UniProtKB/TrEMBL annotation:
InterPro entries: Beta-gal/glucu_dom_sf, DUF4982, Galactose-bd-like_sf, GH, GH2_Domain-Containing, Glyco_hydro_2, Glyco_hydro_2_cat, Glyco_hydro_2_N. This is Beta-galactosidase. It holds the Pfam family Glyco_hydro_2. Residues 630-689 form the DUF4982 domain. Belongs to the glycosyl hydrolase 2 family. Residues 53-177 form the Glycosyl hydrolases family 2 sugar binding domain. PANTHER family: BETA-GALACTOSIDASE, BETA-MANNOSIDASE. Residues 1-26 form the signal peptide. It comes from Flavobacterium anhuiense. Residues 291-504 form the Glycoside hydrolase family 2 catalytic domain. Residues 182-285 form the Glycoside hydrolase family 2 immunoglobulin-like beta-sandwich domain.
Length: 803
């Protein structure tokens, strides 16, 4: 059976199964991501799109900005495109309603079914349904969707935000079928929760076009082990009904260490025949922000240990698979985090499921990011989006905060858009909407001081050691804000680091910058800071994070902080960064591969024992003979023993009150050539873990770089890694050379470019005199021909035989 026949058969079989399901279940939901057509054409006329001949095949999710966002050309495509799908529905039941559910389509979407407009949606990052009941027919149906991410100041987020606004159908699409009488929505709250007992309230809304008088709703609650805890049936006499379960004894609480989830099912019946059913997971928990003090979950103090997450990945942009979403969240949890701020917009439904199941508290954010206050159309769009966010994500126990925006009065898009009075009036309106729709959660905002009194929780801006001042000022900053704000939390701190760049003496700004400041300025041109003058080394960021965690982990009255950001992410505002168009503040690169800083957090937060010698990307070093270097080991073990070339340098006990590395540091007198470093960690239970690092050390310092040397190695995936090394006249690697180098594949293959990763950009600044790029052979068997060049070296050439 050839591939075409197989795909056709598979699609037919799926729809047959879909129809069988119609007769067996009240509600069906089928993923229709596969086999779409795509047209990069901004015409607004459906007939012109239909006549076009240059449609291409693809599967969803998809964005047309997957690579142009991170190529070397300024700007990225902000325009409209079309998507098309043949949707086969062999049989239509007149007693059912059919809809298409888009989990996210950015930014505006208009959907056509069989030549007629079926519906539209304004705003990306949030799901929506298009009712197609009156437009479909039995057999093949033509689905067309026009998606537009054009510049539009009336739709948040502002284009002045520090991230790309990816265009396309960036999340899953589903075909949904329900009986005409069905459950429209359920909202689950837990009015009372304690360790001894809890209550549960379910508010259900219904669609009942025929005004049937014979509807009943049965709600059943099962505990995490699947045992029925409570069940109740009520007659449906209105468009909404409320069922309450009181006195649920000894509830298994949801928390960050044991995220216990109950299962709730709501079944709508008509004359004992099931018409619809919905299943949701439920978490019993309560929380409190103490006035001018810490955070409590289920009556116990919980230090918030957080990070931020942007929804994007190398090679696909925002069109991430569910597996990629889960990989991010698992990595965040494995690091030991218990909190994630979803920046700066609501994210894929799979992310919230992951947070519920993994035990990650969530700050969910309305994408009012910069741009100031807008006109009446802007206000309507913004309020609608907030309502959509709360309605769709209401039942997730992981969510504790609805954020109403970030840096909202920065860089206004509209005249008088930074007017505090007007902004506060609208912010108050949003705050009231959030509390009315959901009185159980807190509202928050970051870095809009004039509105700090309006929301429940406020985050000022503290960028100690990066955009302002020294990281040593961090304790002073949080002490100031703990007193000033009733419910204070610190979101965003950190700095950029370039993978593989290291320094024996990282730039700290001492005697150059004003050490006591910590505020980030909107315009950086008048402010001397580490972001501008620093070396962007991994060492410095390790020290910065280590200090921040040293402070936060030892302050019993601190609520906690949220590091910025978990992964490197793409941004149109940073074309001159070491990797162009990348915000490199991630604890991992854009593919999720950990940098050194990841292990700093892991040493404070993670439970699975590990040891990590700083640094696995620092294996070539130089310095004077008989000059010891301090080596840090980041570990969560109680004790660590360190070895140099087989000789023990002693055992040390981890001590949270010590800095750096909680006291796990050793002075190593490197020998010339290869040095083998081994760290052995031992837990309280006696379990051991180890880490080994080989360092090549030299006593003579390199001279000025005079040329590039190119080499290659074959990777396990069949591609080749081409590496450029800057060398001096003695053929020594120039560990201080940091200029950009430009790669090009002339023949025999193509570079893996536009990825925004350390080996996936044709332009990249060197890290200690080294830069690499992955190259994909073209399959011809001909040699790969590569060049690497910059203004200093003009151009070097490498020919790689294919074997």
């Amino acid at each position: 059976m050839n591939k075409l026949h197989f795909n056709t058969f598979s699609i037919f079989a799926l729809f047959v199964l879909f129809q069988i399901c119609l007769s067996s279940f009240a509600q069906t939901k089928m993923n229709i991501n596969d086999n779409w057509l795509y047209l990069e054409n901004d015409t607004q006329k459906l007939n012109e799109a239909q006549k076009a001949s240059n449609w291409t095949s693809l599967n969803l999710p998809h964005t047309w900005n997957a690579e142009d966002a991170t190529d070397l050309n300024p700007g990225y495509r902000r325009d409209a495109s079309w998507y098309q799908k043949k949707l086969n529905i062999p049989q239509i039941d007149k007693n059912r309603v059919y809809s298409l559910y888009f989990e996210g389509s950015n930014v505006t979407t208009k959907v056509y079914v069989n030549g007629k407009e079926a519906g539209s949606h304004i705003g990306g990052y949030i799901g929506f349904s298009i009712d197609i009941t009156n437009f479909i027919k039995e057999g093949n149906n033509d689905i067309f969707a026009r998606v537009d991410n054009s510049y539009d100041i009336e739709i948040i987020p502002s284009q002045k935000s520090d991230f790309f606004i990816y265009g396309g159908i960036t999340r899953d699409v589903w075909l949904v079928s329900k009986y005409k009488n069905h459950i429209e929505n359920i909202k689950i709250t837990t009015p009372e929760v304690s360790a001894k007992k809890a209550s549960l309230q379910v508010v259900s809304s219904f669609v009942n076009p025929d005004n049937s008088k014979d509807l009943s709703l049965t709600v059943t609650l099962k505990n995490p082990k699947g045992k029925k805890v409570a069940s109740k049936t009520v007659l449906v006499t209105d468009r909404t009904s409320t069922i309450t379960f009181e006195n649920i004894k000894n509830p298994e609480l949801w928390d960050t260490e044991k995220p216990n989830l109950y299962r709730l099912s709501a079944v709508l019946s008509e004359k004992n025949q099931i018409k619809d059913s919905i299943s949701e997971k439920v978490g019993f928990r309560w929380f409190e922000f103490k006035d001018h003090g810490p955070f409590y979950l289920n009556g116990k103090r919980l230090l918030i240990r957080g990070t931020h997450r942007h929804e994007e990945q190398a090679g696909v942009g925002a069109a991430m698979s569910n597996e990629q979403h889960w990989a991010d969240m698992k990595s965040i949890k494995e690091m030991g985090a218990n909190f994630v701020r979803l920046a700066h917009y609501p994210q894929d439904p799979e992310v919230y499921r992951a947070c519920d199941e993994l035990g990650l508290l969530v700050w969910d954010e309305l994408p009012w990011c910069r741009g100031g206050i807008g006109n009446d159309v802007w206000k309507t769009n913004t309020k609608n989006m907030l309502a959509e966010i709360i309605n769709q994500n209401y039942n997730h126990p992981s969510i504790i905060i609805w954020s109403l925006g970030n840096e909202i009065n920065w860089l206004p898009d509209f005249p008088d858009g930074d007017n505090d009075k007007k902004t506060n009036e609208f912010l108050t309106e949003l705050n009231d909407i959030a509390h009315k729709m959901d009185p159980t959660r807190k509202t928050a905002i970051r870095k809009y001081y004039e509105g700090s009194h309006i929301v429940d929780v406020f985050s000022p801006s503290i960028w100690s050691g990066w955009y302002s001042g020294s990281y040593k000022s961090y304790q002073k900053a949080i002490d100031v804000y703990k007193k000033e704000y009733k419910h204070f939390i610190h979101a965003e701190y950190g700095g950029d680091s370039h993978v593989g760049r290291h320094s024996e003496n990282p730039i700290t700004g001492e005697n150059v910058i004003k050490a006591e400041g910590w505020e980030e300025a909107i315009v950086q041109t008048k402010v001397a800071n580490i972001a501008q003058i620093g070396d962007w080394s991994e060492n410095y960021i390790v020290d910065l994070f280590d200090w921040h965690l040293h402070i936060s982990e030892n302050d019993p009255t601190f609520v906690g902080n949220i590091q910025w950001a978990f992964k490197d992410f793409a941004t149109p505002l940073r074309p001159e960064d070491d990797i162009p168009y990348m915000n490199q503040k991630g604890l991992t690169d854009r593919n999720g591969i950990p940098k050194d800083a990841y292990y700093v957090f892991k040493s404070y937060w993670a439970t699975a024992p590990f040891a990590y010698i700083e640094s696995h990307t620092w294996t070539e070093r130089q310095g004077p003979e008989n000059t010891p270097r301090t080596i840090s080991v980041f570990s969560n073990c109680e004790k660590v023993t360190f070895f140099h070339n087989g000789k023990s340098l002693g055992e040390k006990q981890k001590n949270l009150s010590l800095y750096p590395a909680n006291g796990l540091t050793w002075d190593v007198n490197f020998t010339k050539g290869e040095n083998i470093l081994v760290a052995v960690g031992k837990t309280k239970e006696g379990k051991t873990v180890s880490d080994t690092l080989k360092v090549n050390y030299r006593f003579n310092k390199n001279d000025t770089a005079i040329s590039l040397q190119l080499s290659s190695e074959k990777l396990k995936n069949g591609n080749y890694l081409v590496t450029a090394i800057a060398v001096d006249n003695n053929n020594l690697r120039c560990l201080d050379y940091e200029a950009s180098v430009y790669f090009q594949c002339l023949k025999g293959g193509k570079t893996l470019k536009n990825q925004g990763t350390p080996t996936g950009s044709e332009s990249i600044r060197m890290a200690n005199g080294k830069a690499s790029i992955e190259v994909i052979p073209d399959g011809s068997g001909n040699p790969i021909e590569m060049t690497a060049l910059n203004q200093s070296f003009k151009g070097e050439y490498l020919k790689i035989p294919i074997n």
